[in-house]
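tokens incoming
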């Protein structure tokens, strides 16, 4: 019986499943799409939101409208497991922070941890009132016209972990909006071309913490190298201590190299205090606050050193001001 059924099912699949050619996609494109969805489905843990947000003065939130716009679902039965950690943090702390309003959007699609169905919606908590709206054709995407309207007209602070695959578009939109933000993104952004200009122009800096663990759609812990990024002032950045700013001759030999173009490369957060020319660093010292210590990024390019003809990992060129 089972075998018979599965033969029937196979027959059915054969007749209705369109070929890749009919769907106008190649196998490679299909794999890329699947990979993209996989890379985006990293959900933030509540403790990571709490650990970072509690570092900022409570007064930055007072009477502010917070917008969580990277698939930050809120369950209508108050089920915590179906609500994003960002939404949950602001719902739990709404009064303590003195928030004026919380706006969260749910992104269309069936994939996801929150099981909130395929329809995009907007959740609004305004004082004691909580409403959920399903505007026609609303996708819940951060660049949907309604999301942009909320961003530009209503929002004071944007807070989310947006899809990694759309990070460059997301950063452009929120930075151009001029709003305050506190978001999670890839740890390598300070040395990635799409983002270097924002660090160079001092429009963004790292928050207090890294984020290395997330939940996948099965609620299992998965690892990815993320960091908080913000344009909200950071007080006495604790990670300044990780920077070893010393005269060049005091940097151990194993942490300084001249590349084939005679550019100095320094590692392990060793920074020369007396070197006048540009030198190349990894993302780490930038995340630890190097640009707040009298150094600037020289240009918007990623720098790929060659040492003895061998290409090394990408960096960024910095210089003492
Ligand atoms: C890194 S996950 C984080 C989800 C949630 N903000 C959290 O922190 O748990 C990014 C989410 O954005 C969703 N997404 C993908 N494209 C999007 C878009 N254009 N606008 C909003 N969300 C999107 C993904 O499906 C994924 O659920």
């Amino acid at each position: 019986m089972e075998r018979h059924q599965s033969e029937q099912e196979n027959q059915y699949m054969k007749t209705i499943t369109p070929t890749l050619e009919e769907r106008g996609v190649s196998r490679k494109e299909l794999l890329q799409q699947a990979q993209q969805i996989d890379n985006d489905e990293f959900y933030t843990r509540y403790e990571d939101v709490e650990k970072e947000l509690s570092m900022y003065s409570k007064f930055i939130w007072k009477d502010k409208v917070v917008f969580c716009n990277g698939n930050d679902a809120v369950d209508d039965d108050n089920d915590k497991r179906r609500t994003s950690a960002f939404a949950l943090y602001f719902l739990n702390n709404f009064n303590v922070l003195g928030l004026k309003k919380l706006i969260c959007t749910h992104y269309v699609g069936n994939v996801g941890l929150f099981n909130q169905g395929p329809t995009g919606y907007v959740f609004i908590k305004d004082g004691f009132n909580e409403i959920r709206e399903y505007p026609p054709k609303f996708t819940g995407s951060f660049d949907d016209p309604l999301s942009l309207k909320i961003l530009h007209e209503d929002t004071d602070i944007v807070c989310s972990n947006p899809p990694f695959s759309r990070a460059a578009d997301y950063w452009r939109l929120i930075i151009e909006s001029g709003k305050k933000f506190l978001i999670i993104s890839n740890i390598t952004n300070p040395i990635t071309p799409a983002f270097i200009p924002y660090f160079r122009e001092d429009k963004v800096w790292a928050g207090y913490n890294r984020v290395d663990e997330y939940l996948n759609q099965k609620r299992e812990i998965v690892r990815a190298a993320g960091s908080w990024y913000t344009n909200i002032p950071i007080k006495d950045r604790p990670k300044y201590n990780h920077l070893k700013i010393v005269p060049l001759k005091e940097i151990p030999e194993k942490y300084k190299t001249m590349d084939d173009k005679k550019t100095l490369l320094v590692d392990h957060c060793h920074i020369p205090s007396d070197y006048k020319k540009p030198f190349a660093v990894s993302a780490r010292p930038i995340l630890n606050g190097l640009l707040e210590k009298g150094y600037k990024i020289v240009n918007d390019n990623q720098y790929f050193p060659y040492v003895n003809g061998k290409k090394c990992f990408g960096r960024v060129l910095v210089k003492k001001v």
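note: Confidence is low (pLDDT under 50) at residues 1-18.
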